[in-house]
Amino acid sequence: MDLEAPLQVPFQQASNVSASPVHHILSGSFRSLSLFLLAFSPAQLTLDLVQTIPAFGPHQYIGLGPLSQSGDTRFAYTTSWALPPQLHSWAIERHADSLRVRFVDNVEITATSSYVAVPPPHSHLYSAGGPSAQVHALSSGDSPGFGEHVQELYFVPQFEWDAADKTRKALRYGSHGIEFAFPAGSRPLAFIPVLGGSVIEVYTRADDGSLIHVDSSGAPQRGDGAEQEDGPRHVKVHPNGRVLYCVTEHSNYLDVYTITPPNGVTPVLTYVASRSLIPPHLRSETNATDGPKRAYRGDTLLLAPSTPTQPAPQSIFVTTRGSDEEANGWVSVFRLDAEGRFAGDIENNPYLVERYEAKTGGGKAHALDLRVKTDDDPDGALWVILTDDSPPHPGVRVLEWDGWLWRGGGTRLRQVAAWPQPGFYSAEAADGEEERMEVGTRNPMMGWLPFQAEMNYAARIKLAN
């Protein structure tokens, strides 16, 4: 099957921090106008600041674009809360034994965006947020900034557009992401979850990069009853192009769907199963309001990267946030079978699910990204990046995942490094807050900056080797 997968270009980054290789991470922030380039040393389990990059507003979600023809530059694209609403492009450049990030250009859009994606063949950028989504062509050559504006999509009736909220507040109930599938024998498909509408909108991609609406998929009927306000927040697609995963913000579920190419008869998305983002004992508890699901907000998800020994992801990682300081966020790992469905039916089976309780609520966006330790590890061991803007110690955290067959004792998922240390401050203001602001990262664009591209080409955290 032709998945139009990103080109795999090996790039091993040398390190000034230690003699061993390091992984670079590019992170945005809710509490700072800057981007932050970090270096993680697996040998020393340290996470250090390499570069602070002046940017244009908080809430930078990152999507990675193509590698330059020379092979020493990768391009990234970010959202922000800047006004008027804008998207920005950046070049991540290799200089001798280090990486540096520089601004390329920006483009104004009509409504604040929360998500960007640059799917293969990397000719167009897709952004979504609130009442609209945008399609922009990318310039060709060795500096692919923004080109022609191709299309704007709307998630409110046309007669409501002029009065629609186009600020960041609309991200709470409008469109919130966009992902692509490349099923065999079909045009590429795009999926946009609309949080407030509890619907996933489905499109085909035309040759000119524009999107054509073909279907709408409402909230599924689960065993605990219909969810009228499910709140689909983010989606991901299995590399086989036949399975879609969706995290719901309001009901705290990970839903699995099968994908059928549009045929005019069968729905594109068919609901298969769900797993709880929070431990079952928390879901079964009740309180005086709407129950425990309202104490948490489902957030993001990511499939384990494909490797030569494990081409089909063994695991999917999902996060949820506490809706107040009394509830800690959670990271859950679910085992998948070879087809991308949940492995087994027992949610409490320790060989099928692992849960990690975060040290805080997780903040506005409990984002994550993943990096394989080695390509030949049969257990699927990973480094996991987690972002958090919650007090008292917001920042970037690195977790270690030992894989499903780990027998070394202790937990299989645990924190091993964090940045910044308590007391670190960014000497800039964000969104009218105090002049000196404690850095709190946002999952918007947090991730390894892979010069060796991963199947999940858009993430909130980006790794750079």
From TrEMBL:
Residues 213-235 are annotated as: Disordered. Pfam families: Lactonase. Gene3D superfamilies: YVTN repeat-like/Quinoprotein amine dehydrogenase (2.130.10.10). GO terms for molecular function: 6-phosphogluconolactonase activity; isomerase activity. The keyword Isomerase applies. InterPro entries: Cycloisomerase_2 (IPR050282), Lactonase_7-beta_prop (IPR019405), WD40/YVTN_repeat-like_dom_sf (IPR015943). Keywords: Isomerase. Belongs to the cycloisomerase 2 family. This is Muconate cycloisomerase 1. It comes from Mycena sanguinolenta. The lineage of its organism: Eukaryota, Fungi, Dikarya, Basidiomycota, Agaricomycotina.
